[in-house]
């Protein structure tokens, strides 16, 4: 797959989809090209994918990897930019993303931000360019699999929203931003099975709507894609299926997690015990998870209120009465007009 540099558009959100687990390939997302600045990686000699325009590096334990990014301002006004090292994470939509985030998973040996020097702020005069340098210190014992992150470039005049603890909603207001991926390998040919875990299932609110949230963890230090999820909610007392939901083209960053939200369907429910069944696939890999959860009386009322507001039952007696009244009015009006014409 041809790799391109990841670009973020105005009012946009860059989503990076990983299609090949365990390979060096990084999938891409394309948006409108930034016009207020450019960022080009200066690839070192230990680059694995020679024609890629992102860092895909074979690093050595105990060494310091130098990353250089050429940033330029083609405009006619000065611009202040901030270059931020970030970790690749998985958004709640079920896709690997490269955005500023405090979302981490305890299974990671290390992360790109832990190994790399802090963010850098630079001011560029019109038509000026500078090279920004970061240093990534590789642990003496190395690391397994893949460490995945990026260099996120943004205009400091636009405030970057603080990431929420349980959400990765992110907006780019009145500016462009651009991110260049950084993929690091101590053992590029190392093969690993993908290990997924269902960490927790709970009922929460998304807006005013109760949903079942399943926290899915990727415990493997590898990006993988082609993720499909089929979720079913079963009422334990009756054994009936309440709702079903699918995710067709997901991906997960190395050592990351996301909350997969499942709606409770369009019918009224009773409080009690339910089971969430998840069937996940990625290529030939398959995972199945089942976990019970309890729908409280409060959440049941909230769900049923929403369902009734969306789909009110038809009151046929009311419509019949209205139809009879309308018919009587028509008959009365016709009789009155006929009598008046007779008198005339």
UniProtKB/TrEMBL annotation:
Signal sequence range: none
Domain WxL Interacting Protein peptidoglycan binding: 37-154
Keywords: Membrane, Transmembrane, Transmembrane helix
Entry's transmembrane regions: 316-338
Stored Pfam families: WxLIP_HBD, WxLIP_PGBD
Domain WxL Interacting Protein host binding, chain residue ranges per copy: 168-304
Name this polypeptide is given: DUF916 and DUF3324 domain-containing protein
Source species of the chain: Lactiplantibacillus dongliensis
């Amino acid at each position: 797959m041809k790799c391109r540099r990841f670009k973020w558009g105005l009012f946009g959100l860059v989503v990076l989809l990983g299609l090949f687990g365990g390979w060096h390939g990084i999938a891409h997302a394309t948006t409108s090209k930034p016009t207020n600045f450019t960022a080009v990686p200066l690839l070192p000699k230990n680059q694995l994918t020679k024609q890629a325009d992102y860092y895909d590096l074979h690093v050595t334990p105990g060494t310091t990897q130098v990353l250089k990014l050429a940033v330029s301002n083609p405009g006619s006004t000065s611009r202040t930019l901030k270059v931020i090292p970030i970790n690749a994470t998985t958004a709640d939509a079920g896709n690997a993303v490269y955005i500023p985030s405090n979302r981490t998973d305890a299974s990671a040996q290390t992360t790109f931000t832990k190994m790399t020097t802090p963010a850098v702020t630079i001011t560029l005069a019109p038509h000026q360019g500078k090279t920004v340098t970061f240093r990534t210190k590789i642990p003496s014992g190395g690391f397994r699999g893949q460490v995945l992150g990026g260099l996120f470039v943004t205009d400091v005049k636009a405030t970057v929203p603080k990431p929420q603890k349980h959400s990765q909603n992110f907006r780019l207001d009145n500016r462009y931003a651009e991110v260049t991926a950084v993929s690091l390998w101590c053992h590029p040919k190392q093969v690993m099975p993908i290990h997924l875990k269902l960490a927790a299932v709970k009922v929460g609110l998304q807006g005013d709507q109760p949903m079942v949230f399943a926290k899915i963890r990727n415990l493997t230090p590898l990006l993988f894609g082609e993720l499909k999820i089929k979720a079913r909610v079963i009422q334990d007392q009756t054994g009936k299926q309440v709702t079903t939901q699918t995710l067709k083209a997901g991906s997960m960053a190395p050592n990351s997690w996301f909350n997969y939200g499942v709606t409770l369907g369009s019918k009224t429910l009773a409080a009690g015990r339910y089971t969430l069944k998840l069937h996940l696939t990625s290529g030939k890999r398959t995972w199945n998870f089942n976990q019970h959860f309890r729908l409280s009386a409060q959440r049941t009322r909230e769900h049923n209120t929403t369902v009734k507001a969306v789909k009110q039952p038809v009151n046929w007696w009311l419509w019949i009465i209205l139809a009879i009244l309308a018919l009587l009015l028509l008959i009365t009006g016709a009789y009155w007009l006929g009598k008046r014409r007779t008198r005339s």
